[in-house]
Amino acid sequence: MSAEAPTGSPRVVSLSWGRMEVEGVGTGKDFKLHPAGGRPWDWNETGTRHSPGVLPADVEELLDRGAAVVVLSRGMQERLGVDPRTLELLESHSIEVHTAETTEAVRIYNALAPTRPAGGLFHSTC
């Protein structure tokens, strides 16, 4: 992680069940966002499932791209868990972390994104 990590992460423009729009990134269902931009979040890349939930491998890309604060969405009905090892990894890197239902996670992320090197994982369904 660079000491000169960029600030200003892409903002989530809209959110509805199964659909998100992110400035400069596009439209899709789930996203990984970070100070360098973002991309769709494909759970199959790391074997993510609702339980145990967000895995350490899911957040590593955010850290590699300069995130100093991370927002993890739990899904619109909070069915997506967060593996305790993920929180341990973030804590070991002194990363501020927020977990919340997706609508609230987007609100938190959008508040942080303009001025902080924010990263986020967003799940727009259950």
TrEMBL record:
The keyword Kinase does not apply. It is found in: Cytoplasm. Residues 27-49 are annotated as: Disordered. InterPro entries: AAMDC, MTH938-like_sf, NDUFAF3/AAMDC. Coiled coil: none annotated. The keyword Cytoplasm applies. Keywords: Cytoplasm. This is Uncharacterized protein. It comes from the Bacteria. It comes from Streptomonospora litoralis. It holds the Pfam family DUF498. Its main location: cytoplasm. GO terms for cellular component: cytoplasm.
